[in-house]
């Protein structure tokens, strides 16, 4: 089955954008299946950085159909800005397809996101404030506005009035905000609707037709496993399902249509926002990794928390998504490290844990059990064959594969498209 799901195996920012971009070169369809503009992918092409928040990474390849699936929540203003930037750079966006079932982020979603986060004080989640969570809340509450309604002025007006009637009392009485202006919001979003109308279609049909024709379909996730709503470090999670199963729900295709699952693994660990992080390095090593790796959020600009690679989380990710092979990224960031550590187990109250804990209390108190390996202390960014990597570097990669049970499919040695070592065929 020529279809691939690409997922993040950690807390996001693993370099999924580059891996998807690499695979998209051979794909007929690239389908984004969850999340919103709280995610950010950076793709470097000929020295030019492309920061994508909503557009699928396949947009940079002419002839590739790029699908924004039904479980993506879309801020139309952000999407239109991205489209404008692509057009300015000479990128053809005519292959974009937006699901008529995708939900629309409204101004009150962004406002409530910020106000709710402020109200939580010390218990804040670390949201991006983009309105993602409140939009998903409305979806689950069955009051969300979908593109199919946005394109119908009468339906949109009725649904918008309903939402304003429900949310104005909260905004005015709880948070002391001014009531919303129906006409202003209606006019603004009707304008967005006309600009996006040509892209909106039944994307479930598009995806399943492509699969039926044995075309190469690439499913692109946002965020990552440890931020999954059910299986991540709840409540410090996103509002959707970044695991492989999310690709089926988020595009409307069956699990039998998934041919291969690739887990993107950063060679060390990072996290943005709140929540437990067992291998976090609050020392000069963590700062060194952040500085060399320019570890700042693509979407928020916030500094990422940095730590050693955590195999316990990676094994959990492999189980949840039945990962076939890994794409190991940012290996070059470790070039100058004399010694590397891998967390191979968690110890809690003197005993080793068998399963990944659901309890944040437990996860916050576990003692990482480390295995130490020598670094290679040489520049690998110019290497293009796996066998040419330093012996210590290959030993590190191969030890990760053994510990996680994931084959090594791709090794990335830099941000550029050409800085990619393919160890096994993907499509």
Count every beta strand, where a strand is a DSSP E run of 2 or more residues.
20
**Helix-and-strand structural type:** alpha/beta
Low-confidence stretches: none
Which strands sit side by side, in order, in the main sheet?
Answer: 9-7-5-2-10-1-11-15-19-20
Given this structure, which CATH class of the largest domain is correct? Alpha Beta
Give the CA-CA distance, first to last residue.
9 Å
Give a description of the structure.
With 427 residues, the protein is α/β, with parallel strands linked by helices. It folds into three domains: 3-98 and 200-261, 3-Layer(aba) Sandwich (Adenylosuccinate Synthetase, Chain A, domain 1), CATH 3.40.440.10; 103-196, Adenylosuccinate Synthetase, subunit A, domain 2, CATH 1.10.300; 266-422, Adenylosuccinate Synthetase, subunit A, domain 3 (Adenylosuccinate Synthetase, Chain A, domain 3), CATH 3.90.170.10. The protein has helices at residues 16-24, 76-88, 107-120, 132-140, 147-150, 153-174, 182-196, 203-212, 245-251, 284-293, 311-321, 360-365, 391-404, and strands at residues 3-8, 29-32, 41-45, 48-52, 65-68, 73-74, 96-99, 103-104, 200-201, 217-220, 260-266, 269-271, 305-307, 309-310, 325-329, 339-348, 351-352, 367-374, 407-412, 420-422. The strands form five sheets. It has a ten-stranded mixed β-sheet, sandwiched between helices. Strands 14, 16, 17 and 18 form a four-stranded mixed β-sheet that branches. A hairpin with a 2-residue loop joins strand 16 and strand 17 (351-352). It is globular and about 65 Å long. The model has no long low-confidence stretch (mean pLDDT 94).
């Amino acid at each position: 089955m020529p279809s691939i799901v690409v997922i993040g195996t950690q807390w996001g920012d693993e370099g999924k954008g580059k891996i998807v971009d690499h695979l998209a070169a051979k794909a007929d369809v690239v389908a984004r299946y969850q999340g919103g503009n709280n995610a950010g992918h950076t793709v470097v092409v000929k020295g030019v950085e492309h920061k994508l928040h909503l557009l699928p990474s396949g947009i940079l390849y002419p002839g590739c159909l790029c699908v924004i699936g039904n479980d993506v929540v879309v801020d139309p203003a952000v999407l239109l800005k991205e489209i404008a930037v692509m057009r300015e750079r000479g990128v053809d966006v005519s292959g974009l397809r937006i699901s008529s079932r995708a939900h629309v982020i409204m101004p009150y979603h962004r406002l409530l996101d910020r106000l709710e986060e402020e109200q939580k004080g010390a218990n804040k989640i670390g949201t991006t404030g983009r309105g993602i969570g409140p939009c998903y809340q409305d979806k689950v509450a069955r009051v969300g506005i979908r593109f199919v309604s946005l394109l119908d002025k009468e339906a949109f007006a009725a649904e918008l009035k309903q939402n304003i009637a429900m949310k104005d009392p909260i905004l005015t009485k709880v948070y002391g905000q001014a009531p919303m202006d129906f006409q202003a919001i209606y006019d603004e979003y009707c304008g967005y609707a006309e600009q996006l109308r040509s892209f909106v279609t039944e994307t479930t049909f598009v995806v399943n037709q492509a699969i039926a024709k044995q075309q190469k379909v690439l499913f692109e996730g946002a965020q990552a496993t440890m931020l999954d709503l059910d299986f991540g470090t709840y409540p410090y999670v996103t509002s959707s399902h970044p695991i492989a199963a999310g690709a089926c729900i988020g595009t409307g295709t069956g699990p039998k249509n998934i041919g291969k699952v690739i887990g993107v693994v950063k060679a060390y660990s990072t996290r943005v926002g709140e929540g437990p992080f067992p291998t976090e390095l609050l020392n000069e090593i963590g700062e060194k990794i952040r500085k060399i790796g320019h570890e700042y959020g693509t979407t928020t600009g916030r500094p990422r928390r940095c730590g050693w690679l955590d195999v316990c989380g990676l094994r959990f990710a492999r189980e949840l998504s039945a990962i076939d092979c890994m794409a190991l990224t940012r290996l070059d960031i470790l070039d100058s490290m004399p010694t590397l550590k891998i967390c191979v187990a968690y110890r809690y109250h003197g005993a080793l844990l068998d399963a990944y804990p659901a309890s944040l209390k437990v996860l916050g108190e576990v003692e990482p059990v480390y295995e130490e390996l020598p670094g290679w202390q040489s520049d690998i960014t110019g290497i293009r064959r796996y066998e040419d990597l330093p012996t210590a570097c290959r030993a590190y990669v191969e030890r990760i594969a053994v510990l996680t049970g994931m084959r090594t499919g791709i090794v990335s040695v830099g941000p550029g498209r050409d800085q990619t070592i393919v160890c096994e065929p993907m499509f």
